[in-house]
Amino acid sequence: MREALALPEESQGPGGGEPGSGPGADDRGPVIVGPDDPGSAPGPVRFAERLHPDPDSLLRAGDLHVVVRALGPEASDSLAPVPGLVLSYRASSSLSRTAAERLSERLQRLRNRRRQERFQAGGFPVDLDRVAPIEAVSLATPREEAGSDLALFLTPLVVMLMLGGGTIVAADAISGEKERGTLETLLTSAVRRSEIVGAKLLSIVAVGVVVTVVNLANLLLYVVVGVLELPEGFAASLPPETLLLLLVLYAPIALLVASVLLLLSGFAGSYKEYQIYALPVTVLFLVPAAAAALPGIDLRSFVSVVPLAGVSVGVKEVLTGEYDWALLAVAFVSTTGAAAWGARLTGRFLSTERLVTSAEIDAAELWGGSALFPRHVLRWFGLLWVALVLLSLWWGGALGVRGQVLLNVVGLF
Fold it and tell me: 296 vs 48, 98, 138, 285, 300, CA distance in Å?
C-alpha cells in the first residue's frame, strides 16, 4: 500500500470518515499525508498516518501527496496570527491537490465540531449555526432573473445558427460555382456583376432572418404560449412587442454575417478552402456575441458602440425589462454601420475578376501598371519595414543618424 496520510494529532479510521483521536496524538512533529486509493478518480479518500524525518523530500519525489505540520505550543504565545496546521502539497499534481482539498475540508469539519463541543462544555449549549444566521435575499424579480439567464445563450445561439445556415449558402454561392465552372457562364449574361453579388448577399441574409424569426417564434410558443412545461422558477416575460424589438436588433447581425461569409467565399478558391476559413470566422463572431455573459457589463459603457457586442448586451437588458432607448439605438446603429460597411466592402471586392473566377490572373495582372499598386503595396511596405528594423539593429550604431537617413531615403525608398 502506498503511504497515504499522517495527521499530527488526529488519524482517520479505515472507512474514510471524520478524523478522530488515535495513536500519536501527543506527537506534534512533521507528518506525511496522501490518499491510499489507487488513482486520482473522484470518490472516497482514505488517509493513513506515518512519521518521517524528511517528509518534504518524499513529497517532491511524488511518493507522498500531502504533508501536514502542526505548530508547537510556543507558536500560540505569539501575538502575530499563525496557522494551527500547515498543509504542503504539489500543485502540479492533480492527485496531490485533491488530497489536500479533501483533507482541508475534513480538518475544517473537525475544527468546527471540536469548537462546538468546547462551547457546549463551557455553558453555551446553543448550536453555532443558529447564532446570527445569514439569509441571502435577491431583490430581482423572477422576470429579471429568468431574462438574465436566457440572455446568456440567446444571442450566441442565434449567431451560431446564422453562421451555420449562411455557411451552406455562401460556400455554394461563389466557391462552389468556381469548382463547377458555372460562375463564368453567369458573368457572361446581361446581368450586371453588382446585381449578381447583391442577389447572392440577399440569399444569405434571408437565411439569417429566417433563423432569427424561427428562434423567436420558438420563444413565443414555449415561454408565452406554454407549449412545453418550463423549469420551476423560470418566469420570463416575452410579450410580442419585446420579440419584435429583438428581431429589429438581430436584423443588422444577419447582414453583417452574410457580408463576411460571402466575402470569405470570394477569397476561397474552392469549397474545401472555404471550410478551413469558416472556423476562425465563427470564433470571431461568437466572442462578441457572448459579451452579455461578462460580469458587470451593461450598455452604459463602451460596449454600446462595439458592433454585435452592444446588441448582445442590449438584448440582455431588454429581456430583464430595462429599456434604455438611447443606448439601444447606439448599439443598433453601431452594428448597422458595421454591417453596411461590410456589405459595401464585399460588393467592391467581389467586383474584381480575380475573386469571382477561378482564373489565376486577371486583366490587371496581365497588363500590369498602376492597377496592381493597391494589391502589392502592403506586402512591399511590410518587407521594407522589416528590412529597416533589421538594418537599424545590426548597423544602426555604426551608421549614425546621417547614415540611417541616407539608408532610408536612398537605399530603401
Answer: 46, 32, 17, 21, 11
